[in-house]
Amino acid sequence: MDAHGTFPFLKETILFLALSGVLIPLLARLKINPVLGFLAVGTLLGPYGIASFGGSAPWLNYITFSSQDDVETLAELGVIFLMFMIGLEMSIDRLWSMRKLVFGLGSLQVGLTALVIGAVAAYFNHGTEAAVVLGLALAFSSTAIVMQLLIQQRELGTPLGQAAFAILLLQDLAVVPLLILISILGASGGDGNFGALLGLAAVKGLVTVGLIYLIGRRVVRPVFHQIAANRQPDTFMALTLLSTLGVAALTWAAGLSMALGALLAGLIIAETEFRHEVEVTIEPFKGLLMGLFFLSVGMGIDLRALIAEPVWTPLSVIGLIVIKGTLIFGLLRLFGLSWGRAAEGGLLLGQGSEFAFIVIGLALSFGVLPRDTGQFMLLVVGLSMLTAPLLARFGNRIGGRIEQHQGLRETPETEEFGELRGHVIIAGYGRVGQMVGQLLAEQGVPHLAIESDANLVARHRKAGIPVIYGDASRPELLRRLRLDRALTVVLTMDHVAAAIHAVKGIRQTMPNIRIISRARDERHALALREAGANSVVPETLESSLKLAGSVLESLGVPADAAARLLEQERERRITAFRD
User: What superfamily would CATH give domain 424-576?
Assistant: First the structure.
């Protein structure tokens, strides 16, 4: 037996990893959106690109994907992790804090856009089911592209950034009933009253989300708590992957999509204190698998169809952008944005979405959409996504000129952790960390604590103390907690290596932030100083100095003179370990 024959997708896996290792750094250097890079490479190396000329050049078979089916199975994992990460962003508290924008602006955008596009689809003789599916699928905008563009342009904290984020968040929520609706339509074979099926989808969606919420409160949190108490990163990662794929498998077994299950798995964990640590844990997998997903999307773009339809394809792309852009522009003005920012928002959100590939692909598999219609719409969505960075840049310039002409200036608002400005991050919430936090709270200083002991986290969160579970030696987690806006980081961890690692990571991320750290002894204090800590407090040394200071004062030594003597002794003892 051929040993290599038992390893499926070997050539495709090696080719994808080679592309990721070369393509991602190159795109970062050229400041090109990686999503568009993978789409373009997928189109070029896919079955409709240069691989179609492989007969005359057999060597092309080694550097191309000969069939989209070769990577679709792997690409499904990318979809699952995309939906899971989106679920992590949708906690109930966050939705409630942005309820006006999310459920007001977002609902109007999805509803009106779906209505207009669905009416256009019905005008071209598509059935009711197909028109509704196309209207909703094309109403979505690309979360991956828009969020990255907002971050690159540093507009995430502006009113436009918050409005765009609210629209994207509602679109993410709308995926749930839409996937359920397509599953029901596919199972019914198009029979039955459409209104009744739509109502059934809504009821089924509410019941599903309700059950998942109960499961999250009663099952997932205790399981994560038990695993986290062991402090083993490998088991924590295994449980994260199990939650993602396990819930996805359950929804698939129930006749729904795996993407819906992954979204619900993210929703479960988003309501726990382990959310931020899970985000950091899953981030590397998400990046690679998302690249694989967009690579497979690019492979499905047949540029020969563009040649076959040289008029209708570009007109459809332009029409999609015009319809969505105009409606979003009007809604943004209705919700108080200026003319310039509303125009920029319309162009920023005018493209199609990665969700369209999921929704249309599922609709094709269930026979809800005709094959030709689905393939044509996938091409339109893919091409619209390719134009997104150019449209965003153009919209930014147009919006700026309008603002300049009107003499307006936009003021930034808060981001996800915008309420944490000028706060203190406490890494480690044992006895020392609790005392620091209590003193800060009494003085009205905003603070947030990170603790790796799940038992402590559960106890303090029940008491209403802002503590999250995580490993403070990972700077990725600190960045998510708005390290760039913090005044100070206080390290009270009793683990020597973890404290030194945390200081180095924080200093590399934010070179100018002040770091105050607890140390066990003089040797530990010196290591922390050399790692980048601004101020270090050795426990044993400080206790000895405190006693010595009391003795000196009792002997009549002036307080300021005693303080100078103690400071000299403190510095001498710490620096003595350097030799």
Answer: NAD(P)-binding Rossmann-like Domain (3.40.50.720)
